[in-house]
Amino acid sequence: MPITNRNPNFIIYDYMTTKLNTKKLTPDKHSFAMPEVVDVKTDRGIDTETVEAISQYKNEAKWMRDFRLKAYETFREKPMPTWGANLNKINFDDIIYFLRATKRQERSWDDLPAEIKETYDRIGVPEHEKNWLAGVSAQYESEVVYESVQKELTKQGVIFCDMDTAVKKYPKIVKKYFAKTIPPSDNKFAALNSAVWSGGSFVYVPKGVNVSMPLQAYFRINTERFGQFERTLIIAEEGASVHYMEGCTAPLYSTDSLHSAVVEVIAHKNATVRYTTVQNWSTNIYNLVTKRAVAHENARVEWIDCNIGSGVTMKYPAVILAGEGASGEVLSIAMAGKDQVQDAGSKMIHLAPNTTSRVISKSIAHKTGKSSYRGLVHINKGAKGAKSYVQCDALLLDDVSESDTFPTINVHEKDTQTEHEASVEKIDAAKLFTLMSRGLNEAQARGMIVNGFIDEVTKEIPLEYSLELYRLINMEMEDSIG
């Protein structure tokens, strides 16, 4: 039972745990559920009072509170998307918009509550950090619960912290860039995130600094009918470089949850930013994410986006090529299984001369899954010498799944080069027979063919993540012929 009530919109707990329904869990190690750990959470549903309460609890400055309230009004006014997946089943009044699992952010795994520590132990966060990561940030429900950054990064002036801390400690930098690339008016879910955002990562890399090892964040949803709305902002100053990686997991429940993140990336002159995502949400998650980057003169932004789980994913990483010589790349994998919809793609906006973009999309569908590539290439008037290449490859593993390509190409400058190619294929029976004749069972043979199909993307992912991706796909293949 609650022990205090500091605010009518919050229920306060004293590290109590509540048993949750853990039936129907899949064998995937990421799909387990832990007892709920709660320090503070809102009632279900959203209104002005809930938005104010979140801001009040976080003790935010007036500018952020006003930003949230204005964004909430935008959310109310914005219509639901009428294209892509069917989102009519989302019930905004049945979602928990804020849940803090711990009273404070810890810097030692040993100091975390046992339930949270076991969760991240089981998905391998400590091993990753110990072996090869420059920094780790772990978000459990709404807020970051653990964060560790090598001292060397601090000496270089690199800032890697959760977004809530950044708002308080680095307000000048945050106010300069926050919501400038993705304003709340961009779409309904960007507005919702802007109103109730919590957690996420803030990365600032000073001029000329090369962050040699990846920074990494894990995002975990454990509570039923929960909304996770992390906000990530990455700024690379002139000549800087950084690789940021994130992993996403959630247990499987019979009720739906919502993940709606906003990610903004700013790459200044001659900077390089790579952003890698391996998503393994459970099939009860609506994954509706807005990701956008701005690349200035001779800067480069790369999105590597791997989508295996979720019931519905709608995600289209974008690069605005704002400076001459800027380049952008999106390498994506989307795998849709039974009753899953993977509506993924990219946006490349060429605003300046001699800009280049490259998109490689690999989609796999099986067991009634639906995979789609939805992309935009826009070349503005004056973007002379712009070049764009888009390749969309789809693999269907049966006769009941679907794959679609929805490309849009707008060219307003004559002196440009655009290429688009798409292919759809089924698993080659001869290849399948050859592999099975070498001793593999059908699931293993299919998995090997699929892994070869996506190799163009996975070879760009660090070994730890590519092995995890192969494992997840092989598990999907084991279920695909049952």
What is the structure about, briefly put?
The chain has helices at 48-57, 62-77, 114-122, 125-131, 151-155, 163-169, 171-177, 188-196, 429-437, 442-453, 455-458, 463-480; strands at 10-18, 36-42, 99-100, 135-140, 143-149, 159-162, 201-205, 215-220, 227-228, 231-236, 241-249, 257-259, 262-267, 272-280, 285-295, 300-307, 312-315, 318-321, 327-336, 341-350, 356-365, 370-379, 387-396, 402-411, 417-426. It is globular and about 65 Å long.
Question: What does this molecule look like?
Answer:
- The chain has 482 residues and is an alpha/beta fold.
- It has 2 domains: 10-315, no CATH class; 429-482, no CATH class.
- 23% of the residues lie in helices and 37% in strands.
- The strands form 3 sheets. Strands 6, 7, 9, 10, 12, 13, 15, 17, 18, 20, 22 and 24 form a 12-stranded mixed β-sheet that branches. It has a 10-stranded mixed β-sheet with strand order 5-4-8-11-14-16-19-21-23-25.
- Helix 2 packs antiparallel against helix 8 (188-196) and helix 9 packs across helix 10 (442-453).
- The longest helix is centred in the last third of the chain and has 18 residues, at 463-480.
- Residues 1-38, 102-107, 125-135, 138-146 and 250-254 have low confidence and may be disordered.
Residue stretches low in confidence (pLDDT < 50, at least 5 long) are 1-38, 102-107, 125-135, 138-146, 250-254
- Structural class category: alpha/beta
- Estimate the global geometry from the Cα principal axes: globular
Reported for the largest beta sheet, the result is: 12 strands, mixed
Rg calculated over all Cα atoms: 22 Å
Mean pLDDT: 80
Strand tally is 25
Number of domains: 2
Helix content: 10-25%
Roughly what fraction of the amino acids lie in strands?
Answer: 35-45%
Termini separation (Å)?
44 Å
Task: Quickly count the helices.
Answer: 12
